[in-house]
């Protein structure tokens, strides 16, 4: 046992340790010095500057939100409250093809680039500048950044409604390489969205070839998640395989009533493909999605809520059909009048969500959008909802499995070293929570409410949240891809 010569900075005594590996919960002590976990076991003989007693509480590795759009939120020096209060200690940014960098200030910001920020936020002509900004003014939580393919397209192309030419691909490769050299942990695409819709698999493959030597990962919001879901999965598998890069399918879902139930088949596809290549996936525990307001997305929905609208903020939080009715116009016309805007889309079946979230290889990613007056409740509730509703109440998985999805599985898949487990030598990212009461409280009507049951959150050894109180500190680090030379 180590650490006996010096007392601990933090000592968790008699806590129920859920170590992130999926292994059984066990009672014990955990000692922290500086930013690291240094000892686990019976530490009753050593003193500590601060002791926290378990009393039936569980101690887990801090949750890793693998799918976020917190690129700008992380920069703003705030406590990242929606994530911190869920027990999240690390966020992965740059998802769905969109990242704040590299893009020259003043560039056009076609949707969905505007879901992560506006022109004031897009001020980093190189990826290094973004990373430096995060390091100069560190975030509250750890941030692992990816670079987005749509952002690269906007940076080098005069119009986006066509495939990139070979010289444009070459220009994107240079920007991508700069991002990788500056520590980007991966590349994301958002092939569904207009800025990247016309990008053929060959364009993506050319960029992915750059990833292979670096050990970076590829995440994709696929070309289609409704009527061509299976085709899109196959395209993603094939492109990643051709480049020999690890693939993560973002927010896996079966959209639109006629596609409900397809997860039976798609999860079998994951089982099959995982025999021959590295493929992971993430999901959020809700039957509604959220994004920019787009007419083609509205078609697949039972119901659409407006989360924000620049010209009509008075309709934030309202039902789109209702607004169209009041305006006495078609849905399409109402959308035109509301743009630029964001929306919540009800288009999934609860059975599919349960099946996907409880699939052993699924990680948890909130996909929360920290913009807009009435955000989707996943921004504030995702992790406690999986723990409280899907694991404890519905018994779809054990609490250890649920924690594994949010911690070690995420760290392994995205290659975040020394995080995601309660292990000696690992960073002291920790969450103390009450397994009996942990639950989300955010709803579509009142989305900005803190989850219940999260007692304490520690980031790199610094206590950031305790008993409802947030300390305005910024112990977060930029997690760069480990150099592989
Ligand atoms: Zn997405």
UniProtKB/TrEMBL annotation:
Top-level taxon: Bacteria
Main enzyme class: hydrolase
Gene3D superfamilies linked: D-aminoacylase. Domain 3, Metal-dependent hydrolases, Urease, subunit C, domain 1
Name of the gene this protein is made from: dan_2
Protein name: D-aminoacylase
UniProtKB keywords: Hydrolase
EC id: 3.5.1.81
Family annotation (Pfam families): Amidohydro_3
Listed GO MF terms: N-acyl-D-amino-acid deacylase activity
Domain Amidohydrolase: 55-463
């Amino acid at each position: 046992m180590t650490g006996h010569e010096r007392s601990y900075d933090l000592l968790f005594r008699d806590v129920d340790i859920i170590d992130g590996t999926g292994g059984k919960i066990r009672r014990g002590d955990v000692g922290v010095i500086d930013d690291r976990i240094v000892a686990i076991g019976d530490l009753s003989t050593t003193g500590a500057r601060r002791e926290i007693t378990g009393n039936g509480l569980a101690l887990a590795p801090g949750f890793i939100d693998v799918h976020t759009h917190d690129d700008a939120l992380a920069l703003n020096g705030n406590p990242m409250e929606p994530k911190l209060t869920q027990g999240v200690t690390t966020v992965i940014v740059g998802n769905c093809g969109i990242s704040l960098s590299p893009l020259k200030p003043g560039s056009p910001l076609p949707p969905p680039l505007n879901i992560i920020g506006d022109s004031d936020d897009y001020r980093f002509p190189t990826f290094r500048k973004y990373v430096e900004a995060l390091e100069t003014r560190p975030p509250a939580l750890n941030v692992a950044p990816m670079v987005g393919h749509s952002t690269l397209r906007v940076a080098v192309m005069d119009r986006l409604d066509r495939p990139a030419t070979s010289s444009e691909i070459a220009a994107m490769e240079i920007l991508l390489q700069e991002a990788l050299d500056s520590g980007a942990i991966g590349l994301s695409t958002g092939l569904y969205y207009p800025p990247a819709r016309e990008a053929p698999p060959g364009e993506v493959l050319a960029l992915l070839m750059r990833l292979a030597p670096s050990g970076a990962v590829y995440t994709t919001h696929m070309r289609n998640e409704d009527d061509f879901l299976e085709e899109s999965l196959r395209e993603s598998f094939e492109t990643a395989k051709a480049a020999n890069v690890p693939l993560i399918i973002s927010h896996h879902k079966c959209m639109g009533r006629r596609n409900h139930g397809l997860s039976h088949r798609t999860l079998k596809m994951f089982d099959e493909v995982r025999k021959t290549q590295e493929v992971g996936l993430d999901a959020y525990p809700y039957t509604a999605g959220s994004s920019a307001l787009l007419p083609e997305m509205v078609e697949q929905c039972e119901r659409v809520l407006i989360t924000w609208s620049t010209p009509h903020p008075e309709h934030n939080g309202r039902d789109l059909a209702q607004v169209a009715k009041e305006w006495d116009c078609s849905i399409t016309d109402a959308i035109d009048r509301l743009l630029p805007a964001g929306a919540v889309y009800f288009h999934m079946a609860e059975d599919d969500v349960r099946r996907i979230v409880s699939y052993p290889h699924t990680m948890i990613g909130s996909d929360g959008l920290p913009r807009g007056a009435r955000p989707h409740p996943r921004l504030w509730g995702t992790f406690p909802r999986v723990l409280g509703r899907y694991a404890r109440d519905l018994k779809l998985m054990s609490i250890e499995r649920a924690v594994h999805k949010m911690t070690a599985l995420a760290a392994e898949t995205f290659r975040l070293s020394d995080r995601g487990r309660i292990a000696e030598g690992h960073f002291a990212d920790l969450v103390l929570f009450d397994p009996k009461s942990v639950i989300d409280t955010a709803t579509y009507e009142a989305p900005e409410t803190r989850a219940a049951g999260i007692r304490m959150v520690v980031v790199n050894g610094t206590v950031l949240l305790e008993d409802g109180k947030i300390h305005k500190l910024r112990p977060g680090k930029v997690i760069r891809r480990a150099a592989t030379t």
